[in-house]
Specification:
The complex is a heterodimer of chains A (308) and B (485). Chain A is α+β, with helices and mostly antiparallel strands and 308 residues long. Helix content of chain A is 33%, strand content 26%. Chain A folds into two domains: 133 residues, T-fold (Roll); 165 residues, no CATH class. Chain A has eight helices and 14 strands. In chain B, 15% of the residues lie in helices and 32% in strands. The chains are: A alpha+beta (308), B alpha+beta (485).
């Protein structure tokens, strides 16, 4: 492949693009971006889709980094937009929250990258269905009649499924994201994991961040917090206190923290920013929006009992 | 909050994270370890496969929970890939692992060495002229090495080394480090040789010379080709010239033709005759016929000797890979006239091709562990050198065997294709980070002043499963812990 700029990711050999050993999924990594792409359907369409994904992927990190300073600033409700497509998706996804809460476009970076890659695939290929998973923030494509069954984790740092959800093509859900203090990014809250289903991956990403931040017990002694900049000097969260550890909480404390998150999630659902959310804290799960949409969260009763 | 002095800026990607000591960057792949940027990919543990590398020994199958004693560890070898390094040098290496092998307590000192004195030797299987000896080899315009002496059927490059890594400009150092890193991790690198070719090199892959992928390595030099195929040509053609930039062979003059009784043909070759039927410098070096610069094979022939040649004489001209060939018959004026290659000769050209091995690039890492790295192994560094020299200590690179150069220091060479994927990293110094393991008897380790307090049993590594990646050992590599034959 050729590239015009001498300093781009591929020339530097930084971006890694390869098929996983199953021969079906495409794995792309560049700096902190780590993406798995899986397209289904006719072989030709899959190949076309993967080629498009790889082509789009190569410049994404450089593009983002050229506007990183802006993207790390708190979002405003209006104002000039950044120039990169991914950056624009990020800003659009966080703007609805800008008036009420602290949020930077970085809260939607993974979902926006996933969405951008998926869109590049769909612009030239016609897979029957496809997903782009950017570290747990997932953009989906579903042709009419198709569905995805998605497993949900209790904690992002462990592969422990607590349930599955089925997404049908007629649901308008095309984005899934998970956030929590155990994940790769810092969280202001104490949720182990908040999984959100939304119209787009960028919207889901931003909402998962906001809901995970809301699952909280402010000032609680069992929650260890530290200024984000103490850990990472250039964090977009600056001097805000991020969760480092959470001690064992009582049943009431878990309930109270989850309740705060639920209220936030209900509000976002009322504003049509999300379809549904599942909130996890120390083995307890609460779900918002499961009953009203065709989606189904089936928890695994056996596991619940073990944890009880 | 300002950036404290102890944070470092990672330049592995454009995010340019500031990383505090003990923390990772946003990718979780690079970290600040005592002021050094280190790569944090999973620590690789080799598993000796049951049969031909197809199945892994289940990680915990044999190893019971560690009960505090040395476990039998012949099936597992801890490589230095992802082990990290220690800084400053006098600190013990990150992992000093003991295991019992055939009743003998062994210890493996595992560290990722930061090599400023290192490079690669690249062998490129092609006769095509890539550039004159000593020509500078460039990556993205920066000098990263030079063309060194040709080997059999191959062009050789010597890349890296301390002068390019640290002796030139910052750009030169970075480009050199990038080149070495990619080649050692078996990735493709495009190299441009001054007044020569542009070649894409990747370990275990065919070279691509000026945009054309090399298919075959030559079957032999021009003279050797005559020797190999003379019998198959005899009777089917009157004269054969095997065009080769080094030694062009001529059937009727060559000893092989003489013994078969091939009559003189009156052919006249340009260039310098070495011995009968063997000619040097029939043309200039290039990327065409047999590594010469000619596209018209007749350009290396003078007029036929009118006393000897006869009309109708059949002449085959072919290159050492069979890639180029042409067939001529002399007309009444004794001018060669190109004709279609007759079927039997087609077969012989095909035979040359079939006997050529596929052209490949091979990359040997070369590095000197003779310096400060030794201090992480023993408090008495020269003892390690002596121990390696006396074959009491075995050195491996990511579990792959190494050749230890004679003479002073511990200068090793290792074939990167025998190491696990992505075994190498770098630090922005710039220098290459390469895995290196020293395996020796526990008693010998004590004798040479090893860090006995830091020796930990293999079982303690095995229990900590999550941070390790388990790979099947390559069946073609000697098992690093196996007793010497």
């Amino acid at each position: 492949m050729n590239c015009g700029e001498t300093n781009c990711a591929e020339m530097k050999g930084r971006a890694q693009i390869r098929m996983l050993s199953d021969g079906r999924r495409l794995h792309m990594q560049d700096g902190p971006i780590d993406v798995i792409v899986h397209a289904f359907g006719e072989r030709r369409e899959i190949e076309l889709a993967y080629r498009a994904a790889a082509r789009r992927f190569v410049g994404v990190l450089d593009e983002l980094c050229s506007e990183l300073g802006y993207l790390r600033q708190p979002a405003c409700e209006s104002g000039p937009l950044p120039s990169g497509m991914v950056a624009r998706r990020m800003v659009a996804a966080v703007r609805p929250y800008a008036a009420d809460t602290f949020i930077t476009p970085m809260a939607a970076v993974a979902g926006s990258v996933a969405e951008e890659i998926l869109e590049s695939m769909m612009s030239i290929a016609k897979p029957s269905r496809a997903y782009v998973n950017d570290g747990g923030d997932i953009a989906l494509h579903l042709s009419p009649g198709e569905k995805f069954v998605v497993g949900m984790v209790e904690r992002p740092d462990q592969a422990s499924l607590f349930g599955t959800t089925t997404i049908l093509s007629r649901d308008s859900i095309r984005g899934i994201a998970t956030s929590g203090w155990r994940g790769r990014s810092f969280s202001l809250g104490i949720a182990d994991a908040v999984t959100v289903l939304a119209d787009t991956a960028a919207m889901a990403d931003a909402a998962a961040t906001v809901v995970a931040n809301a699952v909280d017990l402010p000032g609680h002694p069992k929650v260890e917090r530290i200024q984000a900049c103490q850990l990472t000097p250039d964090s977009d969260l600056g001097e805000r206190m991020v969760t480092q550890a959470v001690g064992e909480l009582s049943h009431d404390e878990i309930f109270a923290a989850l309740e705060a998150g639920i209220r936030m999630a209900e509000r976002l659902r009322g504003s049509r920013l999300i379809h549904a959310a599942a909130l996890n804290l120390q083995g307890q799960t609460r779900v918002v929006g499961a009953g009203c949409s065709p989606l189904m969260v089936s928890s695994m009763p056996d596991r619940r009992l073990v944890n009880a | 909050m300002s950036v404290a002095d102890d944070a470092i800026r990672c330049d592995a990607c454009p995010v340019l994270c500031y990383i505090r000591p003990g923390r990772t960057g946003s990718c979780d792949r690079y970290a600040n370890a005592g002021g050094q940027l280190v790569r944090l990919d999973p620590h690789i543990v080799l598993e000796r496969a049951v049969s031909r590398g197809e199945t892994l020994v289940p990680f915990l199958e044999k190893a019971r929970e560690w009960d505090g004693t040395l476990v039998s560890g012949q099936e597992t070898f801890v490589t230095a890939i992802g082990a990290g390094t220690t800084y400053p040098d006098y600190k013990p290496a990150p992992f000093i692992i003991s295991s019992e092998v055939a009743g003998v307590d062994m210890v493996t000192v595992v560290t990722e060495g930061i090599f400023s004195y290192c490079g690669v030797k690249v062998k490129i299987d092609t006769d095509r002229h890539l550039g004159a000896e000593c020509s500078t080899v460039r990556m993205q315009g920066e000098a990263v090495g030079h063309v060194t002496t040709n080997e059999y059927g191959s062009q050789m490059l010597s890349l890296g080394g301390v002068r390019h890594l640290t002796g030139g400009s910052r750009h030169e150092g970075t480009a050199t480090c990038d080149t070495l890193l990619h080649l050692c991790n078996r990735k493709a690198v495009e190299l441009k040789i001054d007044d020569g070719a542009t070649v894409v090199v990747q370990a275990e892959k065919a070279p691509v010379v000026d945009g054309v992928q090399e298919e075959r390595m030559r079957v032999g030099c021009g003279s050797a080709t005559i020797g190999m195929f003379a019998k198959q040509w005899f009777g089917k053609v009157d004269e054969v010239v095997v065009v080769d930039d080094h030694i062009t062979g001529v059937l009727s003059e060559h000893q092989a033709g003489k013994l078969l009784g091939v009559p003189e043909s009156g052919i006249k070759l340009k260039g310098r005759r070495s011995t009968p039927g063997r000619y040097f410098r029939v043309a200039e070096p290039g990327t065409s016929w047999g590594g010469t610069n000619i596209d018209d094979p007749l350009s290396i022939l003078g007029p036929f000797d009118r006393e000897v040649a006869r009309p109708g004489l059949r002449l085959l001209m072919v290159s050492t890979t069979g890639e180029h060939h042409a067939y001529f018959e002399l007309d009444e004026q004794l001018h060669p006239e190109q004709k279609e290659l007759p079927a039997p000769l087609c077969k012989s050209v095909e035979r040359i091709r079939e006997n050529c091995e596929p052209a490949l690039c091979s990359v040997l890492f070369i590095g000197g562990a003779g310096g400060s790295l030794r201090a992480g192994v023993t408090e008495n560094p020269v003892e390690l050198t002596h121990s390696v020299r006396n074959a009491l200590t075995r050195v491996t690179c990511g579990g792959a065997p190494v050749y230890v150069w004679p003479g002073g220091g511990i200068t090793i060479m290792a074939d990167v294709s025998r190491m696990p994927e992505n075994a190498f990293g770098y630090v922005p110094t710039p220098a290459l980070v390469a895995p290196i393991e020293f395996t020796l008897k526990l008693s010998d380790y004590a004798t040479l002043g090893g860090y006995m307090d830091h020796v930990r049993p293999l079982g303690s590594i095995k229990r900590d499963e999550e941070s390790h990646r388990r790979l099947a050992a390559r069946p073609d590599n000697p098992w690093p812990l196996a007793a010497e034959k």
